[in-house]
Amino acid sequence: MAQVMAQKCSLCDENNGTNYCYECQHALCTACRSKHGKIPALSGHTVADINTIDLSTLNKRNQCDTHNKEMLFYCTECSNLICSKCVTSTHRSHAISDICDVVEEERENAKENLQQMRLKTETISSLQEKIRREHIENLHAESKKCIEHIESVCKDLHSFIEAQGSVKTTEVEDNGNIEKSNFESFLKNTDLVHKQYVHILSELENLLLEKHDITFYSRYKSIKSDIETLISIPEEPPFARVPSFDDEVLYKEAMEYMGSKMDKRIQKIQGNSSKRSRNKGRSNQKVVRRYQGRTEKIAVRTHKCNSPERCRD
Ligand SMILES: [Zn+2]
Ligand SMILES: [Zn+2]
Ligand SMILES: [Zn+2]
Ligand SMILES: [Zn+2]
């Protein structure tokens, strides 16, 4: 706007123009503006703050492109502003009206546009606000809910498998404790036997050092009777039995558990679908069939997992 500000007042040609008269197409200083307003011939002119006007396009918009003359009328047939030459040439016999009448109507239209734009910008703002407040929060909340659901299912499966594993490891541990205590009592008994044998062994060693025949004979007789009453050496016990772990059993238990979970879901879906309309029910039937398909597949897989012997059970 520097160029605009530099325009001199066209009346006094001294001060910088602060206003602009559309009809005179000149800048006016503040003092000359009031003089301009008092001249009766110029009373209908439109004067505005020079800073609010884009002078670069002003002249073009004011003049007829064909005749380079000021636009003075409005052709209602062509919906165009026209100059005095247009009236007698291109737009001859067209219906003509005053620019101010058309502009008045257009101002009303512009006001309506403004109102609509206001409503639309408000709609956009409230939409954005809704996206920020509701949609993004909803996304967070739903994602959180979904993750919690996944975690709870995983936790459930994990605790089921852990519990089953614990039952099996406890069985092995309990068996180990029983078998170990059997071995310990065997060792305790064997200790007694061992002591008796060691005792007789040392008796015999001492006996063989005996020089006196009679003494030897009578002591040996007593030792021999001790040898006869000795408990025989215990037989080696068999290796301890350790319960066998069939991993397929655990897999099967896990799958049966998952199958029971899905059965519950199917029952729930069937319960819901019976409450709803037949139409909706049909789509639920599809879901039910899908779940049933899955459980059947699991059942088939479980079946395959087991050896033929187990299948007969
Ligand atoms: Zn002036
Ligand atoms: Zn003027
Ligand atoms: Zn013209
Ligand atoms: Zn026309």
From TrEMBL:
One of its GO terms (molecular function) is ubiquitin protein ligase activity. SUPFAM superfamilies: B-box zinc-binding domain (SSF57845). Keywords: Metal-binding, Zinc, Zinc-finger. Residues 4-50, 59-99 form the B box-type domain. Residues 267-293 are annotated as: Disordered. Residues 275-292 have a biased composition (Basic residues). Gene3D superfamilies: Classic Zinc Finger (3.30.160.60). It holds the Pfam family zf-B_box. GO terms for cellular component: nucleoplasm. PROSITE patterns: ZF_BBOX (PS50119). The keyword Zinc applies. One of its GO terms (biological process) is positive regulation of type I interferon-mediated signaling pathway. SMART domains: BBOX. Transmembrane segments: none annotated. PANTHER family: BONUS, ISOFORM C-RELATED (PTHR25462), E3 UBIQUITIN-PROTEIN LIGASE TRIM56 (PTHR25462:SF299). This is B box-type domain-containing protein. It comes from Mytilus galloprovincialis (Mediterranean mussel). The lineage of its organism: Eukaryota, Metazoa, Spiralia, Lophotrochozoa, Mollusca.
